[in-house]
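Write out this protein's structure.
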Amino acid sequence: MTAARRGRPGHDLESVLQVAARLFNERGYDGTSMEDLAARLGITKSSIYHHVPGKAELLRLAMDRALDALFAVVDEPEATSGPALDRLEHVVRRSVEVLVAELPFVTLLLRARGNTGVERAALDRRRRFDAVVADLVARAVAEGGVRPDVDPALTSRLLFGLVNSTVDWVRPGRGRDDAADLADAVTAIAFDGLRRR
């Protein structure tokens, strides 16, 4: 991992990363130049290089931000102990909250297609996250918490299809209560249909 360099006053790595993620989402990674980023920040291109060695590092940092937040969810105590269905519900709920909190970064991750080495590495990590969720679904089925007539791999994809689809309409700047309300709605819709009756 490359150590972050100190930037000029008024622009830290966080502000550069926030703007980069938004621009990558608006224009695409290939369609965004360092000149575009500098113009949006109101600084010179060389000022950006005080923070990162290049555009690929900004993409890596942005993708890692989303993935690190998601992997932190599966390491939370509520995701590691107890009945598998409760653990799965916790992971889905908290993933919605992560999506809202880290919207530009999660959006960027979900739009990755593997066109660069950074994207391929991020997609590999995302597949590992998906495998953790699929395993939780399979355990919930085995424990009798989830209907036995649903395929665990398909269920995992459908659950996170529901979660991930919110990037298309949720708006940044919503408060914690809005994120919690959204998480409540997603888990109610998903888990009422999954629970074994």
